[in-house]
Each structure stands twice: as C-alpha cells, then as structure tokens.
Amino acid sequence: MPTIFRLDPGPRLAEATVFNRVAYLAGQIPTDPSADIVGQTAQTLAEVDAVLARLGTDKSRLLDVTIFLADMADYNGMNQAWDAWVDTAHPPARATVAAQLANPDWKIEIKAIAALPE
Predict the structure, then answer these.
(1) CA distances for 116 relative to 15, 20, 62, 88, angstroms
(2) Which helix (H) or strand (E) holds 45?
(3) Strand partners, 61
(4) What is the pLDDT of residue 1?
(5) Residue 37, SS3?
(6) Which burial class, exposed, middle or buried, applies to 97 when counting CB atoms under 10 A from its CB (0-12, 13-18, 19+)?
(7) How, if at all, do strands 22-25 and 5-7 pair?
(8) pLDDT digits (tens, 9 = 90+) for 52-92
(9) How far apart, in Å, are the Cα atoms of 73 and each of 37, 78, 81, 94, 105?
(10) pTM of the predicted model, to two decimals?
C-alpha cells in the first residue's frame, strides 16, 4: 500500500500531503496582510515556492492551482503578480474564485497541487 507523507502535520491540518508522488499543498496566505493585492499575491506565491522547495519540487511541476480572492475587483492586480511569477513554459491549470477568507485582512489564499520529481 502506498505511503502518505504529511509535511508539518498539526492537530488541524498539514502544510502539505504527498501521495503517489503528487503533493497537495494547504492553502497558502500572505505574510503581511497590510500589503495591497499585488504584494499579498507575491508573498503568497513565495510561500507556495517555499513549500514546494521543501518537498523537492518547484513551480514548473505545478499541476493545478486554485486562487481564492476576497474581492474579485483584485483580479487584475493578482494577475499582475501571477504573471511575473508563473513559469510560462509550464503553466498549471488554474481557477480563481471569490471567497470569504478566514482573516478579513487577507485578500488572497492559494491552494496548489504539484508533481514531485521521479
């Protein structure tokens, strides 16, 4: 039976889980919620990068990304930071949805799924 690996498991969630060489990241959030949407997006994408690196992979191996925005009016600003970050040679599937986030100061949360190297 394949093993499930949990990165930084806690009583409520793990930072990521890995099964069959696929990593499922927990929702990543900005480190400084006082920033505008471009800044919060860049911070959150840096958090995605950090978790992926800890798992031995990177954004070129992203399979699927879901972006949760507190306000869809921030869509263009989010895309500004996304476009500067995404690996355009290996873009993932992506969805962006409006959501009420757990912290009212957060403008964004990002959930991702990535393949691990062979």
Answers:
(1) 16, 9, 9, 19
(2) helix 37-54
(3) none
(4) 64
(5) helix
(6) exposed
(7) unpaired
(8) 999 999 999 999 999 999 999 999 999 999 999 999 999 99
(9) 10, 10, 15, 18, 15
(10) 0.96
Tabulate helix, strand, coil % of the chain (nearest 5): 30, 30, 40
Per-residue pLDDT for 2 more than 80? no
Give the distance between the most distant pair of CA atoms in the chain.
Answer: 46
CA nearest neighbour of 67 among 115, 36, 107: 107
Scan for tokens 């500004």, then name that residue.
80
26 vs 51: CA distance, rounded Å: 9
